[in-house]
Design goal:
Elements lengths: L13 E5 L6 H8 L11 E2 L2 E2 L2 E3 L5 E3 L2 H8 L2 E4 L11 H11 L5 H14 L15 H13 L5 E5 L7 H16 L3 E5 L3 H7 L2 E6 L2 E6 L1 H6 L4 H15 L1
Parallel strand pairs: 1-8, 1-9, 6-7, 7-8
Antiparallel strand pairs: 2-3, 4-5, 9-10
């Protein structure tokens, strides 16, 4: 549960959200595209505020379905569980939304899908089904599918947490490439070394609050939060074993 969060991400920012399980990281990410509806506060994307209204039960609900569908089309979200359509091939997964949601011609979608699959390194898997892929390949397909919508912001919700350790790096390499391209990204991750290297802003969450936020050298090297220092020490101890 979030207790009061204030967070800004500007164009080209890579913001990593770190913290213990249950601290509110994924809830924050899901609240941005209204998969979780905040009970109070405001969410602005590209300067446009998402309109909410009381739901009659003390909470809030989306005021305009058309608005949220339009805004969601500008957000590329990658989940920890891939969420690929199992009855579609890799390339069918990637073209589905651009073709049916954005109404792009199928030939154009196929060309773009091939380029994105090449970018994430699985073009040779284009005609296979998700069940024929490794976990890392499935996640890279999910990233290509998100990129095919040409999102203004990429949201990654623990994209490597469901992967075997030997497959984690192949997904992180793709995310690093996107960061180097200057894409705006918010990333929930437990990969501390990666977060430190790829981000220009790191936010540490604890009990639904942002305890520490700043550039990675500040958060990782000189945090004002005792809880943040304790959390990071735990990861340093694990990496030293």
């Amino acid at each position: 549960m979030l207790k009061g969060i204030s967070l800004e991400a500007h164009e080209g920012d890579v913001v990593s959200l770190i913290g213990s399980s249950g601290s509110g990281k994924s809830t924050l990410l899901r609240s941005i595209n209204m998969l979780e509806i905040p009970t109070s506060g405001r969410v602005r994307i590209g300067g446009e505020e998402i309109r909410l209204k009381p739901d009659g039960r003390g909470g809030s609900t989306i005021a305009s379905r058309r608005q949220i569908e339009r805004i969601r089309a500008t957000l590329g979200m990658v989940f920890q569980s891939f969420n690929l359509w199992p009855h579609m091939t890799v390339i069918q997964n990637v073209i589905e939304c651009p073709h049916h949601v954005l109404k792009k011609p199928k030939a154009e979608c196929l060309d773009e899908a091939a380029a994105f699959l090449d970018k994430v390194g699985i073009l040779d898997k284009r005609d296979q089904y998700p069940s024929q892929l490794s976990g890392g390949q499935q996640q890279r397909c999910a990233i290509a599918r998100a990129l095919a919508m040409h999102p203004k912001v990429m949201l990654f919700d623990e994209p490597t947490s469901a992967l075997d350790p030997e497959l984690v790096n192949e997904v992180l390499q793709v995310i690093r490439l996107l960061a180097e391209e200057g894409r705006t990204m918010l990333l929930v991750t437990h990969e501390m070394r990666f977060a430190r290297g790829v981000s220009n802003v790191v936010a540490f969450l604890h009990n639904g609050l942002i305890e520490e936020i700043g550039p990675p050298e500040k958060v990782f090297g000189n945090s004002d939060s005792a809880r943040c220092r304790e959390f990071l020490a735990h990861f340093q101890d694990k990496s030293a074993q």
